[in-house]
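Possible regression after last week's pipeline update?

I re-ran a chain I had predicted before the update to compare outputs. Posting the input and the new output here so someone can diff against the archived version. Not blocking, just want to make sure nothing changed silently.
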Amino acid sequence: MTWRSTGLRWTDGRPVMGWQGGPPGHESTSRLVYGTRLAFTVGEERRCLGVWRAGKRTPCPTERTVPGRTGSAQCPECARLDRSFSVAADTHAADPRTYRVYLAWFGPGMVKVGITAEERGPARLLEQGAVTWAWLGRGPLMAARRTEELLRAALGVPDRIAYARKRAVRGHLPPAPERAREVAGLHARAAALSGWPESLERVACGITDHAAVFWPDGLPAPARVVTELVPGGSIAGGLVAAAGPDLHFADGLVVDTRLMAGWGLGVASADTVTDVPLAPVPPVLPGAEQDGLF
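New output (post-update):
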């Protein structure tokens, strides 16, 4: 039986690795512990993981192979089905749940506005690697969406920031009070705007900082990033941090766990990275609002 990685997940505010195997649709998780050695070797094929919805995965009926460099371990058919239930794609407007609008800070001048289901709490912020953040409002889905669009236009902030930009600045962030001031200033500007939907309840500014969750003992400057997993390759090192989907190792290596999803992984005996393509972590990229791997 092969257990395939489903990538990094944030559960109760802590990072865990997800695994698919056993009976159809069955999944398990393993806790990631900072300060321990993590070592794995890559199996022969990367296969589609199917569709994850409402806390349950529906396996891909054909288990098609997927490319090694893509961030989504889904075949085109499963990706289309997944998107048909996506709030982000505005294909599920009748969702009756309460939603929250938030400000998320990733680095100086690197702030976005977004929405998340209230029942998920801060999970979405952890998944995106938001270092500092604050709630702005809460209400029905479409009111939250209209508020998101209003604030994006008025504050001049995007709804997406590329992961390459996020990880490039993580090792050189200003102290927590400076981060909080930037978020609080934007929150005040947002609260002063007119045009908020009447059905959206304003939320007073309360700053949350995730640095102690992501890297409690500090973070070495990201130096190299894995660009693709290949059969037979291996990765090993001391795990010191996790932020969003990224694992950070003591030697500056960064592994985007979206690349791990869909691969069967085994225990590696190697002490370093072998036969896996690497690239330097680039300097902060100007522009590039669309999210992406590198």
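Follow-up from reviewer: compared with the archived run. The radius of gyration is 19 Å. Marking as no regression found.
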